[in-house]
Amino acid sequence: MSSCTARRRDLRLVPVAVVAWGAAGIATQVPTASPGIAAGLWAAVAAVLVVSRWMPSSTRATAALAAVALACAAAVAGHVALAQPTRAAASALDVDGGRVLTVEATVVGKVERSAVGWRFDAVTDRIAYGERAFTAPVPVLVRADDAPPGLDLGARVELRGTAFRAEAGDRPVLVIQGGSTLRVRAPPAGPLAAAADLRRGLHAAVAGLPQPAAGLVAGLAVGDTSEVTADLDAAMKTASLSHLTAVSGANCALVVGLAFAAAAGAGARRGIRVTAGLVALAAFVLLVSPEPSVVRAGAMAAIAMLGVLLGRIGAGVSVLALAVTILLVVDPWLAGSLGFALSAAATASLLLVAGPLADGLSRWMPRPLALALAVPLAAQLACAPLIVLIDPRVAVYGVVANLLAAPAAPAGTVLGLAACLTAGVPLLGPGLATIAWLPSAWIAGVAGTFAALPGSSAPWPEGPPGFALLAVTGACATALIVPRSGPRLRRAAALVLAALIGVGVAVGPVATLIDRATVPDWAIVACDVGQGDAVLLRSEGRVALVDTGPDPVPLRACLDRFGVERIDLLVLTHFDLDHRGGMDAVVGRVDVVLHGPPATPEDDAVLAALASQGAAITAGHAGLSGSLGAAGWRVLWPRAADRAFAPGNDAGVIVAVEGGGIPSTVLLGDLSASAQLGLLATGRVPADVAVVKVAHHGSADQEPALYARLAPQIALVTVGENTHGHPREEILKVLHALGAAVLRTDQGGAVALWTADDGIHVWRAETSAPVVSRQ
C-alpha cells in the first residue's frame, strides 16, 4: 500500500471527530435544543442508511462513514438532552441577590490554588436555602479562601456561600463562592485516600529542598501544582512551559511505555505487555486524580495501546480521532474546553507536521537537532492560535525554552513518580526526591531566564482576529520550512509573512505614539491588565502605581502607552497574584513602596526584590500621608496594629488621593463588605468623591452604605475575562442608583481621566473621542 493511500486511510475518522465536536459545541451552548438535535441526527442516520442501499458500491463506504459521523453526533446531543432536565432545574434555583446557600458536595476535581484562594470541581449532594432543598447531583465549581486538611479528590464537603450561574457551555452549572466557610465532612476513602496520602508524602519529601524547584517536583510527577510559587507559575507561562505541569498524553505514554518495556524485558507476550501498560495507566490516573483532563489524557493513551494490540501502530491520526469522538460522547462539555482543544491540536501537530518540519529543518542543520527542534515548533504552531484566545500575547522564546527544558521533563516525571511511590520509605523516598529536584531546578531556571529576557512575550490582537492572524502566520512559516511546498506556495507564504511582519513593526510604534498624543494630560489611568488591578496616578510629572495586575506583559504595555518610565510611589494593597503578579515590569524603577501586611515568605521575597533595587519599603496603615507632585495622598485602611482582619483582601491598603490635577479618588482594593463597614466606621471616608475604584473587581460582597457615603461620579471597575461573574449585577445596581458612570476595563480597554474647566474628561482605549463627565 502506498504512503498516500495509508495517509488517506488514517484521515478517514477525522470528519467523524469534527462532526461530533461541532454537535457537542452546539448542544452544550443551546441545551434546550439538544433533544431536537438528537432526533434530527438519528433521522439523518436512518435516511443515509436507506439511501445507501441504492448507491454504487464505490460510494457506499463514504455513506457508511457519514452515517457513523451522524450517529456519533446524535449520541453527543442525546447525552446533553438526558442531562438537561436536572441541569435546568439547578440553574433555575433562586441564587440571585447574594442569597446564602448551604451546599453539600463531593469533590471530583483537583484542588488548585487560584489567584485568590482555592478552587475545585464538585458534584452536589444537596443545595439548601430557606425552606427549599435541591438534592439532584449537578456539577459545580467551588471557590474558597482556604483548603482545610482532608480536602482532596473524593472528599465530602459542606460550605455556606453565594452562587451565580455558569456560562452556557460550561460543565459546571453553578459557581459557588464559599469564602472561609468550607469544611470537610468526610475525607477521601479507599484508593482515593491512598493516592492522596502518596501525594502528601511527596510534598513532605521535597519540603526541605530549595524553592522554587521543590514545588515543581510534584507538578512534573503527578500534575500537583499546589506548591508551585506564583512567580514560577507566571515565568513558566511567559516561557510557554506551563504544559509541563499538566498531566497530558505524554505523561501517560511515558508511564505506559515504562510498564510495557518492563513486561517486554520479562519476555511477556504482546497481550500481557499491553495489559501491564493499561494497569499501570489506570494506577497512574488514580494517583494523579481521575479528573476530566487526566481521564482524557489516559483515554488517548489507552486507545493508542489498543492500536498496539491490534498491530496498527501507524494509524496515529485515526487513533486520535477515535479518542476525541469517544471522549465527546462521554463528556460533551469538553467541546468548550481549551485544554481539550490544545491536547488534540498538539497531538495532531506531532503526528502530521513534526515530520515534515524536521525534513525541512534538516536542510540547514544536523538531522538529530532538526528532529529535536521540530517537536516543540510543531506544538507551538498548532497551540499558539488557541492560547491567544485567552492570553493575547505570544511567547517569543517559547520554542527555544521548550527545546532546552524538554530533556529534563521525562527525568523529572519518572524520578518524581518514583519518589512519590516510595515517599514513606526512609532514605529511599527522600533520596529520590532530591535527585528529582535536579531536573526540576533546570526547568525552573530555564523558565526564569527566558521570562526575564527583554521582549519575552509580545502582545497580540485579542479574540477571533488574533486567532486567525496567528494561524495564518503559523501556516506561512510551515509552508516556508516544509520541503514538499511548491515554489509558488513558498513565494506566496513569504510575501504574506513579510507583509504581516511589516505591518506589525510599523503599526506598533505608530499606534503607541498616537495613543500618547491622544491623552497627553492624563491624571488617572486604569490599565487593562485582565482580571486584576493596576491604576496609575500622575501629578506634575510624579507617578504612583496602585498594584501591578496579574502579569508583567500587559502592565509593561500600559506603562509604555502612557509614557511612564519611573514610578515614584508603588502601592501594593495586598499580595494576591492579581495585584502583584506584574512585579517584574516595575522592579528597578520604583522609589517608594507602600504595602499591605505580608502573609508568606513569598510576600517578603517580593518586598526584598524591590528593596534590593533601591526602593524604600513602608508598611501602609491608616494615618500615613504624603504628596505626589502637587497632589496629596492618605491611607484610610487598615488600622494600625489591627488584628481583626488577616493579611489579604480585608487588610489591604486603601488610599485616597486629591489635588494637583487629580480628581478626588478613593481606591478600594479588594475589601469585602465586612471590612468596608469597618472602614466606614472609622470616620475617615471622604464624601462625594469624583472617582472610586470599585472593590474586588465588582464582586457581590459589597457594602452599599460605603458607596452611598462616597457618592462617586465615576466608578472604575478593573476587570477582565473571569468565571466569578464580575462585575456582579448587585454592585452595578448600587452604582447606577447613585448616578455613577461605570467604566469597565473589560469593555473598551484602558481608561484615562483628567480634569478640565468643563469637568472630568474620560478617554477609552477603544473609543475615538473623549467623553466629558458631569461636573
From TrEMBL:
Residues 528-599 form the Metallo-beta-lactamase domain. Gene3D superfamilies: Ribonuclease Z/Hydroxyacylglutathione hydrolase-like (3.60.15.10). It is a multi-pass membrane protein. It is found in: Cell membrane. The chain crosses the membrane at residues 12-30, 244-265, 271-289, 301-327, 333-357, 369-390, 396-420, 432-453, 465-482, 494-514. Residues 220-481 form the ComEC/Rec2-related protein domain. The keyword Cell division does not apply. Keywords: Cell membrane, Membrane, Transmembrane, Transmembrane helix. This is ComEC/Rec2-related protein. Its main location: membrane. GO terms for cellular component: plasma membrane. SUPFAM superfamilies: Metallo-hydrolase/oxidoreductase. InterPro entries: ComA-like_MBL, ComEC_N, Competence_DNA_uptake, Metallo-B-lactamas, RibonucZ/Hydroxyglut_hydro. Pfam families: Competence (PF03772), Lactamase_B (PF00753). The keyword Cell wall biogenesis/degradation does not apply. It comes from uncultured Microbacterium sp.
